[in-house]
Records
---
Amino acid sequence: MHPALNTRLCALLGVQYPIVQTGMGYVAGVRLTTATSAAGAFGVLASATMSFDELARAIGEVKDRTDTPFGVNLRADQGDAADRIDLMINQGVRVASFAQAPSEALIKRCKDGGLFVIPSIGAKRHAEKVAGWGVDAVIVQGGEGGGHTGSVPTSLLLPQVVDTVDIPVIAAGGYFDGRGLVAALAYGASGIAMGTRFLLTSDSTVPDAVKQEYLSKTVTDTLVTTQVDGVPHRVLRTEFTDELDKTNAVTSMPRALRNALAFKTLSGEKWSAIVREGLAMKRSQELSWSQVVMQANTPMLLRQAMVEGRPDLGVMASGQVVGVIDDLPTCEEVVDRVMAEAETVLSALTGP
């Protein structure tokens, strides 16, 4: 392997290749996480859409299937976040990743237990803050990325962050091949994170009909809407999401309340726990009460598509990179392909 591809991220994560599979709700389950880690990259379980007991079982299943390192992604504002961290510590999980910046207290809890902490950030100032709190690396997601996203493209955000912090930086948003990996390394990143590329593999449990919906899209077939959960969210453009994007706070509230009730039934959470999480979410993300209620839309609308196979009734988080993906390889094939192409590109750049 070219020495440039053996980065400090590889040493931190204990993996062969500087590639991370992101923790996508209802997508990054046991099968995808295991397949990614077994391929030499770093798999991440998505726990935000799991109950505590489901997470405990999932961690056990991944450990039964592979002895390679893996991580768990969780929401910092979940009411049982501390309990989940303790579970991860006890089970020997390597990394706690966060979709939004965790508090300094949660970071300390992780690190005191031997967990590495890697939050996702979308602004330079957020990277500076969490680096000051002692995180081990950051995932920098540019506006091209799927799910919750900002407006600054990766090509501008990445060099800003690399020049600001002295910890490994993982580039996300727009990556799918070896050329992208080399470009990220040239900017100063220590590796890349990919979501949509790993979603579109044969190891992903997303229903085939939904995968075909993704494969039919171009780079302009996504939209960023605040009508999923009150904050900017990049999803595939469909008739459903076009109609959803036309709603407002008044017309969207009944749907959000129905989804809140459905999520309570599905998760088994008590109203007291849901209210506590809502209050924590309101404080940490500076949301309005209507946005807090709308947060229930995310798991339910994602579930409709990603689990139930109904893209006509749900949303499909996606990066713009969906438009340049046209196949469904295994995770191993994706990783091998990215690394082989990166080797070829580096050799062409540096000569014999």
Note: The chain has a mean pLDDT of 88.
---
Amino acid sequence: MSEKEDKTAKLAELEAEMNSADFWADKNKAQATIKQIADLKAEIAGVGKYDSGDAILTILSGAGGDDAEDFSKMLLLMYCRFFDKQGWSYKVLDENENDHGGYRNITLEVSGKNVYGKMKSESGVHRLVRLSPFNSKSLRQTSFSLIEFVPKLEKSSDLPIPETDLRVELSRAGGPGGQNVNKRETAVRIIHVPTGIAVRSTSERSQAQNKDKALLILKGKLYAHNEEEKAAREKGLYVSKTTAIEWGNQIRSYVLHPYKMVKDHRTDVETAKVDEVLSGDIEQFLIQ
């Protein structure tokens, strides 16, 4: 029996259960069943389970040094302006800022309707070409940043992971939050040993809260990675566990010199209105 046939059979079983006379005897169980039915219907119809919910955005700087870290800040501002236009809210979960105001990496939680479904196609390597403001000769510089949009899971019971597959590291959290945040080891980093995927949370006030948050982010990343692998297998392709943030892997290029153009390499959509794109006008590039 195929996976779709399994889900169809499970759906029929749950719908029969919903029609039973004592279905609402346990209200919490009934509501959980209704949600499971809705999720199964969406999966059978080909819609991702988490498309209608929130997302976690991570921006990682790659090749390009200071320029790449400045590019990460540019991308952060671009996305935040787009989020504002959508009426979505967002907050920083973890950040690693350099001395120039750029970001080595930064992670945000984005909340609103259909955030993950709308933004998941933005995941991939982004490339910037411009005259570098970080060298005295203003030479042309190419730099790269990785964008990751993954679904925000609501509870740790989703996508269970064996404890033996996890390595937890503790450290002191920097930044806002008061003296207690900096004195105690509240920051939590979790590494998924089989894949090497690592996440970090510093935004919460306690170690336990940051561990829960980091675990949910990790599970979101694993979900997105598994979906990518599944889609690749259906096309007879191979997906690596990690993506090199460098030349050859970019999904979009932002060229500021010697001409102005933003081009998506998957869809061939392009525009010379670079300033508008960097101000959050990215709707034309989103793949639904």
Note: The chain has three domains: 3-44, 55-152+240-285, 163-234.
